[in-house]
Amino acid sequence: MPSSASLPFPMHRFFVPPNSIQGNTVTLSGSVVHQIRDVLRLSPGDMIVVLDDSGWEYRVRLVMVEQAKVVGQIEQKVLTRTEPRTKITLYQSLLKGDKFEWILQKGTELGVVEFVPVVSDRCVIGSVDDVSKVKFGRWQRITLEAAEQSRRARLPRLHLPMLFPQACERARRADLAVLPWEEEKTRTLRTMLATSDASPIQVRGKNLVIRKPFSISIIVGPEGGFTSREVDQARRYGIAPVTLGPRILRAETAALAAITIILYQLEDM
Ligand code: SAH
């Protein structure tokens, strides 16, 4: 049996606090040590990839694996190119069961950079304080593991839950803000993107097309949808309702469809 050290790819990936890296030495403590030592059973000589949320990844050879501490040496530093240029913030109304967690995981895989949990009128949960510390901790772990698994170089940022008006206030600061709404019949994501700053710039006299970095907010409702009062409120903030087609999608389908359409349309898939 070849040892895992002889398998060049895929290597196990770990996001670590930036201060774990000092010069060429990486010192790990906490739960990642248990993962490396007891779960993956890695030993000195084995390689891992360490990420410090800077966009760089470090290929690290383990030199010491102890019960409370793992030490490694950086052998290579590589700029990771998995982050989309399009910066999507998903404002997702809280959902029942594990649907919200599912969106966090899949949204992270697709490339969402920020998640904002939203409490809107028809949410089952009544207040932003109903999200416990335990639940929030689990959400953070889900985005971390999904980011490692999908080979992202940056961790999506997870915000504390906010109320719908606050969410609109924040969402409108992006280059474009949209609210998928099943009652909207004509305005599509495609037309919104085509008329926004996201459209590529043709460099004069050259066969060169440039896209500027582009940020976009998407606000998706809960199982029961948004109230017309909320849609009006969003409009007043300059947030455009958009259709995702004539069929009614579940909230989690709507969120992932919107993310995918945007990244595809902006050639970021
Ligand atoms: N309760 C509503 C559906 C809500 S679907 C009804 O049965 O009529 C949950 C969320 O998904 C909505 O708030 C909206 O943000 C999004 N959504 C679902 N289908 C959509 C569509 N066809 N177009 C745009 N948004 C949609």
The CATH H-level homologous superfamily of the largest domain: SPOUT methyltransferase, trefoil knot domain
β-strand number: 15
- What ligand molecules are bound, each kind once? S-adenosyl-L-homocysteine
The count of helical stretches stands at: 7
CATH top level label of the largest domain: Alpha Beta
The proportion of residues in beta strands is 25-35%
Tell me the series of helices and strands, N- to C-terminal: EEEHEEEEHEHEEHEHEEEHEH
The average pLDDT score comes to 92
Q: What does the model show?
A:
The protein has helices at 31-39, 99-110, 133-149, 164-171, 189-194, 228-236, 251-265, and strands at 13-15, 21-22, 25-28, 47-51, 56-65, 70-79, 86-93, 114-119, 157-158, 162-163, 176-180, 201-203, 208-210, 214-220, 240-242. It is of the alpha/beta class and 269 residues long. It folds into two domains: 2-79, Hypothetical PUA domain-like, domain 1 (Ribosomal Protein L25, Chain P, Beta Barrel); 87-265, SPOUT methyltransferase, trefoil knot domain (Alpha/beta knot). Strands 7, 8, 9, 10, 11, 14 and 15 form a seven-stranded parallel β-sheet that branches. It has a six-stranded mixed β-sheet with strand order 1-4-5-6-3-2. A hairpin with a 4-residue loop joins strand 4 and strand 5. Helix 2 runs parallel beside helix 7. The protein is globular, with a radius of gyration of 21 Å. Residues 1-7 have low confidence and may be disordered.
